[in-house]
Amino acid sequence: MDTKQHYRAGRHCVFILHAHLVFVTKYRGNVFGAEHLESLEGIFRNVCADFEAELEELNGEGDHVHLLVNYPPKVALSRLVNSLKGVSSRRLKLMHPELVKPAYQKNALWSPSYFAGSAGGAPISVVRQYIEQQARPH
């Protein structure tokens, strides 16, 4: 495992922001195989590039996927998530027609909900201790 932090820089900031995202399929349907996950990885990488973000990890099972995304502070995470889910749903169904549901069912690939957690960096307790130990001006 690479323990070196890769800081990124913008015009006025230096940052390293990671989000752990989990997307679940509609009705928790077991629809993904290895070929679907491979296709999703390419789709997610392209969407992330549009947001100047990087998909660092992707894995999943038949009914959900986990993503580790490095993103800049100018990106609203909810907008990135909406784009990742929307674009992947449309493109994956074009690439894999077997994922298209009959007309009488809703043709959504993803559940409308998702999980997002901050990831990487020091644990909150370490950051809290560091801030508490800063010298106050006299």
Automatic annotation (TrEMBL):
SMART domains in alphabetical order: Y1_Tnp
GO-annotated molecular function: DNA binding; transposase activity
Domain Transposase IS200-like: 14-134
Gene3D superfamilies from the UniProt entry: Transposase IS200-like
GO terms under biological process: DNA transposition
Listed PANTHER family: TRANSPOSASE FOR INSERTION SEQUENCE ELEMENT IS200
Name of the protein: IS200/IS605 family transposase
